Amino acid sequence: MHIYTQPKAQKLHIISATMIPTSLLLHLLLYLTLQPGRVKSDPDPLQDYCVADTKSPHPIFLNGAPCKDPTLATVADFTTSALSESGDTRTNQLGINVTLTTTTNLPGLNTMGLAMARIDFAGRGVVPPHAHPRASEVTICLEGVLLVGFVDTSGRVFTQELHAGESFVFPKGLIHFLYNIDSESSAMAVSGLSSQNPGTQIASLASFASKPPIPEEVLERAFRINAQDVARIRKNLGG
Q: Which contiguous run of DSSP H or E holds residue 180?
């Protein structure tokens, strides 16, 4: 039988709070209290992911667009007419057209953390449930009547009927929608978003039209439907 004994040379040193001077403790507590305010989080990404390239040093993928020489900037860099004309709502089955400002049509917004969008609705046009992973959104109804709303992480839904001149805020990353409740008259809204590249993920397309597709059995169990339902929904969504 082997009996383990701790070597005599090893000693356990314990420092208690009573062994530290009171003034030093106060300074330590003050430091720990103030230190979190000095820590800066990473900036929000402008793309879905940024995989580090550890093998090829030549390509450069920027989190945004490179800046031109400030001395070459003109007033034209900070203005755009991209949202001045209505979009064609007949180009899709949803009856909507979304025009978004980008660094292409509004170079001056680069790195400012904002974007704008014009949304044109045909009768019963709908922006389906979707989320912006990198932006909060405020929408102003300018024409017609819209039903808007979002769902929080507890499953609670907040809806509101917007008339011309009224606004609504959608929190960052939460599923939300906009719907023209009039079957005949068109509607139009303008939105401001807190990212120059907010990203848009439509819930139905992400679930049923991803490439490659989510395994069929996952969708069946998640949505409590059968294989025929999955196939039909995928066909309707072009998946």
A: strand 176-180
d(CA 229, CA 214) in angstroms, rounded, equals 14
Residues 6+ apart with CB under 8 A from 25: 17
Are 118 and 98 within 8 A, CB to CB?
yes
pLDDT digits (tens, 9 = 90+) for 5-45: 444 544 444 445 455 666 676 666 656 555 655 555 566 77
Give 203's DSSP letter.
Answer: H
Model confidence pLDDT, tens digit, residues 173-223 = 999 999 999 999 999 999 999 999 999 999 999 999 999 999 999 999 999
3-state secondary structure at position 121 = strand
Query: Which residue is it, tokens 């660094």?
Result: 103
Rounded alpha-carbon distances, angstroms, from residue 50 to 11, 60, 131, 202, 207: 49, 11, 20, 21, 23
Let me know: does 89 contact 120? Beta carbons within 8 Å: yes
